[in-house]
Amino acid sequence: MRGAFWALFSVALVSAAQLLLRYAMVTLPSVSDVSTFIAALWHFAPGTGSLALGLAGYVASMGCWYLALQRMALSKAYALLSLSYILVWGAAIALPGWEEHFSWRGLAGVGFIILGVLTIFRPARRRPAGSASS
Description:
The chain has helices spanning 2-27, 34-42, 48-71, 74-81, 83-94, 104-120. It is an all-alpha fold. It has one domain (2-120). Helix 1 (2-27) runs antiparallel to helix 3 (48-71).
């Protein structure tokens, strides 16, 4: 169970990091103009803190991922990572000023993600004693 805690904490961190990085990239100058971008970072322009926190969130998420993989199977832990797509999609729609729009297609994708995670975490059926395996 501790493995699931670390995996879900990693999902929360990486979701927050993605949202922070999106905000930073919308707020900061374009990376194509390298000198302007570096000057904005150097002078702590709006978005710089979000960029730093987003990158730190990714690093912290990797640490949690490492702890999760020590405590649970990769096949189960990897399935939990897909929950990040749901969190980011929902947050991008719900957060004011992000101008992301709800779509039924996106909701269908969320449904498929949930079905996939539930399928992977479905308890295994036990075979009756004496049954032959094929």
